[in-house]
Amino acid sequence: MQSYFKWSDWIIGFLCLLRFCDSLNNGLALTPPMGWMSWQRYRCNVDCYNYPNDCLSEMLIKRIADLMVSEGYKDAGYEYLIIDDCWLNKTRGRNGELLEDAERFPSGMKNLSNYVRPTNKS
């Protein structure tokens, strides 16, 4: 017996069924998570000597946090500022804890997060 449906017919049929899918009407996740991630722009640039304005550092993160507010991103719904990678020191602390690179983040991550959060910059 020969099938009268092509693969494209099945795909179109499936897509038509998606039209009837619904999400919970609970007010959550009305927009996708919105924010800024360091990896998308700066990758793992840690050369602050040759690229002081473009290396992953405390100065850069503070500048981005300020721009998220002053350029209207926060008002548009952006709420996350993610330092993705390359913020770590090359060695761990005495108890095995992760440590930030003290040269690029001289005030520490706690102080950096205190700068970003209380002012609702992110």
From TrEMBL:
Name a GO molecular-function annotation. alpha-galactosidase activity
For this UniProt entry, what's an example GO CC term? cytoplasm
Q: Which UniProt keywords apply?
A: Disulfide bond, Glycosidase, Hydrolase, Signal
- Source organism, top-level taxon: Eukaryota
Extent of the signal sequence = 1-23
- Keyword Hydrolase present in the record's keywords: the answer is yes
Is Methyltransferase among the key words of this record?
Answer: no
Q: Could you say which enzyme class this protein belongs to? A: hydrolase
This enzyme's EC code(s):
3.2.1.-
GO biological process terms on file: glycoside catabolic process; oligosaccharide metabolic process
* InterPro entries (UniProt xref): Aldolase_TIM (IPR013785), GH (IPR017853), Glyco_hydro_27 (IPR002241), Glyco_hydro_27/36_CS (IPR000111)
> Which family is it part of?
Belongs to the glycosyl hydrolase 27 family.
Subunit description: Homodimer.
Name-wise, this protein is: Alpha-galactosidase
* Native source species: Agrilus planipennis
Q: Which gene encodes it?
A: LOC112906839
